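S2.1 Query sequence (Methionine aminopeptidase)
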Amino acid sequence: MVELKTDTSIDAMYEAGQVVARALTAARQAADVGVSLLELDEVAHGVLREAGAKSPFLGYRPSFAPTPFPAVLCASVNDAIVHGVPGRYRLRDGDLVSLDFGAELGGWVGDSALSFVVGTPREADLRLIETVERALAAGIEAAVVGNRIGDIAHAIGTVCRAAGYGIPDGFGGHGIGRRMHEDPSVPNEGRPGRGMRLRHGMALAIEPMVIAGGTDGFHAAPDGWTLKTDDGSRAAHAEHTVAITDSGPRILTAR
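Output structure tokens follow.
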């Protein structure tokens, strides 16, 4: 069931989304050679505490997970696609990092992700990140009243496949609002003109993911959470929470 949000509720979701934006910005600024992923998690946690917000990630345990998620931030490095568990790993020059973060404020949730390189970047990594950001922008551009979920999926998939990249099968975006994961699902590849029609008041977390090697395969790391590319190539991830409105898509987690 899809809940249509009122304009007042969308404004409240924007406030939660801005907590997310501030946390990701702070964690991105703190990320440097020698900094541990646990330290980045603490930076993000500090923004939550300052805002009086809660984490929808901490303690979250979907059916596939062997244990509750132990942090407020997902930190995925190099061949990790998503759901990376922050640990004692210290960032190295040239690491490709994807950070995913959520916040709950006033009963509403925001969710966003970004990818970047620490230190000296590889040209291939910059192309990967640029592509996933273009795919996100294309998905958001398609998120207009009267379009369908398939139009978003098609826009994202077209950008990713044209660049020669893989798309992790079965993973994509989702509805969002009172809970982090709500209906509908938002695939990262699909046929235009198919699926649920978009209406004013819908809120979606749109999140393309790309695999540099061009294959779609992935597997779970021993922690049961981190998803890694089967071919060992690098991955990137980008995400925004977006409200569908009569005046166009509104990015609630804009940084």
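The chain is about 30% helix and 25% strand. The longest strand covers residues 96-105.
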